[in-house]
Design goal:
Phosphatase 2c, domain 1; five-stranded antiparallel sheet; 7 helices; Heat Shock Protein 90
Length: 331
């Protein structure tokens, strides 16, 4: 899994609808979607942005390129603090309306998108993610993340990635020192080395990253690995990256050691944690507070990882910092 979190746009008036559509179509052309697929994506983009203008408060969208295995697509993630949707199932049917409009929005999105996921709470807000992939595939990613630059910056100094190596699923999140382009260069270097690292455990992967990014400012980072057969998560972290095993009832924090990858650090240490079958693994930078609780979101733990990540980013991210969150499902 990889994602290029290219463009965040605020959607607070009708003029933003066209901007969302144009950016989405441009990314679709960049990865080679055909004319029909770009047309489908244009409908998805228009309906998602129009819903934010008509019904939402503080509506924003992330438009990005996503890759799952050998498939590439364009994804739009819409996040708001609006009134919420009391009955998501009904609202997703063609012809449903809550504001005297034609009401084909969510139904059209569900039909035209390759993937479609939504979570909504009344008086809290809604997160909607939809992607159009090239070809007939409809990926169901086991992991997803989001990153958002701090206000005033064009690029985010955080990064994340996931890979499968020798049958073992690994995920990594990092935070480049500082903000802006130099922090982003550090984070992207760490991600490239994670993806290229030999097939070792989390501590060995961090050691590899540390040795290979010493030309950068450095990063803090963590790697988690699902043991084959399930039931156990292996984790190693350096610096203030937060890692948790969480479900609706409880959250167990994982231990990171002090230091900076690429600059100064103590030897990475690896820890093992019980991993219940329905639990989520959540990694995030210090751009999010650690006071989130999945129990405050009924049913969220059963949703797609991208929806969980977007909900946490909306409600736990700090305003004056880069922020990133990565969510993976145990099974």
């Amino acid at each position: 899994m990889s994602a290029d979190d290219r463009t965040w746009l605020r959607v607070d008036d009708q003029s933003a609808v066209g901007a969302v559509r144009r950016v989405a179509a441009g990314l679709a052309a960049e990865i080679g979607l055909d004319e029909n697929e770009i047309g489908d994506l244009a409908i998805v983009a228009t309906e998602m942005a129009t819903n934010l203008v008509r019904h939402a408060d503080d509506g924003v969208v992330l438009i990005r390129i996503v890759r799952a295995g050998d498939q590439a697509g364009t994804e739009i993630v819409a996040i708001d603090r609006g009134p919420g949707i009391p009955d998501v199932a009904s609202a997703s049917l063609d012809g449903h309306s809550t504001a005297g409009t034609l009401g084909i929005g969510l139904g059209a999105i569900a039909r035209k998108a390759s993937t479609f996921d939504i979570y909504s709470q009344v008086d809290v807000g809604t997160v909607l993610a939809a992607a159009v992939f090239a070809g007939e595939g409809r990926p169901s990613p086991w992991v997803a993340g989001l990153s958002r630059p701090m206000p005033g910056e064009e690029v985010c100094g955080d990064g994340y990635a996931a890979r499968t190596v020798e049958g073992r699923r690994q995920l990594m999140l990092c935070d480049g020192l500082g903000h802006g382009p130099l922090a982003a260069v550090s984070a992207q270097a760490a991600i490239a080395e994670f993806l290229a690292a030999p097939a070792g455990g989390p501590a060995a992967v961090l050691d590899h990253i540390h040795r290979r990014i010493q030309h950068t400012r450095g990063v803090v980072g963590a790697v988690a690995e699902f043991e084959p057969g399930g039931g156990v998560l292996r984790f190693a972290g350096v610096g203030n990256i937060a890692g948790s095993v969480a479900d609706a009832d409880q959250r167990r924090a994982m231990v990171s050691m002090p230091g900076i990858l690429g600059q100064q650090r103590r030897e990475a240490r690896e820890f093992s944690y019980p991993l219940p079958a329905k639990a989520l693994v959540v990694l995030h930078s210090d751009g999010l507070t650690d006071r989130w609780n999945l129990g405050a979101y009924p049913g969220l733990v059963t949703q797609a990882p991208v929806v969980v990540a977007a909900t946490l980013l909306r409600d736990a991210a700090k305003r004056r910092d880069d922020a990133s969150v990565l969510v993976a499902r145990a099974s």
